[in-house]
Amino acid sequence: MEKQKKSDAGIYKILNLVNGKIYIGSSSRLRKRIYEHKLALNKGEHPNTHLQNAWSKHGESNFQYSVVEEIETPSKEYLLEREDYWIDLLGAGNPSVGYNKRTAQGVFNPYWKEGQQYHKTATRDVEFYKSKMYLNWASEPVKEKIAIFLADLASKGSITVKELDLYIRITAKETYYIDKQGELLTEESRIQLEKSRLSSVYQICPDTFSILKEYKGLSVILEEYPTFQRKHLEAVVYGLTKYNKDKPTIMKSIQGFYFLAKDKYDSIENLEEYYKRKPCGMKEGSRRHKQMLAPPKPERKLVVSTSEVSTEYKSIKDFLDQNPDFKRKGIEKALSGERPVYKGKTFKYEINRIPY
Fold first, then answer.
1. To which H or E segment does residue 153 belong?
2. How many Å apart are CA 199 and CA 218, to the nearest integer?
3. Read out DSSP for 75-126?
């Protein structure tokens, strides 16, 4: 008589012997599936973070595997159906009982959803937001005002907060903007605030603190000095306070160059006191002195070519204004050589030489 082969399909349970919590799963190859669990847990790579944290804390010896139901030649749908049955029966979807965050069908378990929402509401209160580094710049009344708004918004769902130079952006179900006085901005007032920053910018000579050159906005400077990062340039131009490990610092130069917005320049009575040093006293005729006092560099133009024609543009912005279906990132990759052709076009810079 032929010996009947034992089924290797069914429902299994992983039991935490320390706190009694369980994890329920199903597989058509139980021994292989349990081996995969052990391998991932021992490597610290298990997708269920709560089960992984418990395993890392208590160790393999405090977990026990067992088969709760064997199933003869089941379909995948029937296996998932039985897995959900055992999750419900043993309460493995309840965070206080088990580790099953989702049902066998992949639906997020409502017990975990309610638990996470409660955790966010309970911990992210006004004091939590007042302690955040992105509000270090604010006075106590402004900090309190913004923190109350953030805590109220967080109680309704997850939020992301980003401190920008002109305002704070809060992303939730909608996007909100709060200015540096703690007032909620409308879309019109936000745009108006951004436009107010498009004033003249002076390049300051480090030797005499005189004005070397005037620029109409930051974009013009970034075109001439492509190695500058916009956020760092803004910090220098507007004298913004940055926080490094809670220590306030005002950025006053970028890569050795000095810039100030016209309004900021007009408001400073003593530049020596602002920069906290005397003019650098460069030797006349030195390389650095010539570099700072040199006439404007030859302008460069952007040349965009196809197999048939080449067209010149003043800058990437000029090209994008006329060709909105292109992306700046793609053009920059083409210019760097990372992507030789972008949408059937090649891009390169050419210098408009100054005749001597």
1. helix 140-154
2. 9
3. -HHHHHHHHHHHHHHHTTTSTTTB---B-TTSPBPHHHHHHHHHHHHHHS-H
Contacts of 199 (CB under 8 A, 6+ apart): 217, 261, 262, 263
The single residue listed with the structure tokens 């939590």 is 128
Quote helix, strand, coil % in the chain, to nearest 5. 40, 25, 40
- CATH classification code of 300-351: 1.10.10.10
The CATH number of 10-107 is: 3.40.1440.10
- Tens digit of each residue's pLDDT (9 = 90 or more) over 215-263: 877 778 888 888 787 777 877 887 765 545 445 566 778 887 888 888 7
pTM above 0.85, yes or no: no
* Per-domain residue ranges of the chain: 10-107, 124-195, 200-293, 300-351
Residues facing 160 on adjacent strands: 171
CA angle 346, 348, 353 (to 5 degrees): 145
Model confidence at 2, pLDDT cuts 50, 70, 90, reads very low
pLDDT (tens digit, 9 = 90+) per residue, 113-125? 544 444 444 445 7
CB atoms within 10 A of CB 93: 21
